[in-house]
Amino acid sequence: MDLADHLATLVVLDGCDIVLPALEIFILNIVRAFPCVQILLTSIEKLQIEANDGEVLTKETVHVEELGKLDCAKLFFKQARGHLTSRQIRQHTSIEALSEDERLLGTAGNPLSISRLVGRGDR
């Protein structure tokens, strides 16, 4: 019995704009190794990923135009919390504190793309 076939895992990759071109191979390797993985990815640009014909990779992308800093943080937490139990969420996490993050302040309301990728084992 392969343990990787029975684990459901959520991988969160936040702020991936700088490394977006290199993520295709990385994501495909994760999905191949862990069939039940779900990947939640945020970036300004939409993720472009092509799986081979024999592979099943479901991709949902939410592209939101011109969000404010606090809106971005709230949307990210809303998407991420749907996949976590209450024990997995850090109680000290604050949306308001996140909205003061220098990286978010530098975005000046740029569009945000949130991609959810589901491996072939999680249908």
Offer a concise description of the structure.
The chain has helices at 23-33, 69-81, 95-99, 102-105, and strands spanning 9-13, 37-43, 58-64, 112-118.
Description:
The radius of gyration is 15 Å and the shape is globular. It is built from 4 helices and 4 strands. It has helices at residues 23-33, 69-81, 95-99, 102-105; strands spanning 9-13, 37-43, 58-64, 112-118. It has one domain (3-118). The longest helix has 13 residues, at 69-81. It has a 4-stranded mixed sheet with strand order 1-2-4-3, with helices on both faces. By secondary structure, the protein is an alpha+beta fold.
* Biggest sheet details: 4 strands, mixed
Label the overall shape.
globular
Q: Percent of residues in helical segments?
A: 25-40%
Give the neighbour order of strands across the main sheet.
1-2-4-3
Whole-angstrom Rg:
15 Å
Low-confidence runs of at least 5 consecutive residues? 88-94
The pLDDT mean sits at 65
Number of strands: 4
Taken as a percent bin, the fraction of beta residues is 15-25%
Tally of separate helices: 4
- What class, by secondary structure content? alpha+beta
- The multimeric state of the shown protein is single chain
The span between the termini is 20 Å
Number of domains: 1
Helix and strand sequence: EHEEHHHE
Can you give keywords for this protein?
123 residues; alpha+beta; 4 helices
